């Protein structure tokens, strides 16, 4: 399993295996989590470039807090994006370039996916010293 995290204002690494494996920090609630779980198709032509562009683009959304990602060798991927408020989520959901990537994903890259939006009411974290 490959796991990575994308904080809102960092440079995304091209090789996630070199990035430190840590979850996005716990924020003061309330905030929102968008959980996107997908099974990908065999043909992933253009996916990596589009995913990198979406990571760069979402960082510019005011209220974007960060993102956790995990991928299995069998093609299951989970991305959790964290947003300060519903307005930030709406801005991301309605971004024209993001909408175009969604349409391409449905046409080419995903066998299936689910999206869950949740309001986080409790949050805490732990880091070993």
Automatic annotation (TrEMBL):
InterPro entries to which the protein is assigned, alphabetical: ABM_dom (IPR007138), Dimeric_a/b-barrel (IPR011008), Jasmonate_Hydroxylase-like (IPR052936)
Coiled-coil zones: none
Entry-linked Pfam families: ABM
Record-linked Gene3D superfamilies: 3.30.70.100
Domain ABM: 39-104
Superkingdom of source: Bacteria
PANTHER family: ABM DOMAIN-CONTAINING PROTEIN, BLL5343 PROTEIN
UniProt-recorded name of the protein: ABM domain-containing protein
């Amino acid at each position: 399993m490959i796991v990575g995290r994308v904080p809102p204002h960092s440079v995304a690494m091209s090789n996630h295996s070199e990035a430190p494996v840590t979850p996005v920090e716990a924020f003061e609630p309330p905030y929102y989590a968008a959980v996107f779980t997908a099974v990908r198709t065999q043909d992933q032509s253009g996916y990596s470039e589009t995913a990198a562009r979406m990571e760069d683009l979402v960082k510019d959304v005011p209220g974007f807090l960060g993102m956790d990602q995990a991928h299995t060798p069998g093609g299951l991927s989970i991305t959790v994006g964290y947003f300060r408020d519903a307005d930030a989520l709406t801005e991301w959901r309605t971004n024209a370039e993001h909408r175009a990537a969604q349409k391409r994903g449905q046409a080419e890259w995903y066998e299936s996916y689910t999206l869950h939006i949740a309001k986080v009411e409790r949050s805490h974290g732990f880091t070993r010293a």
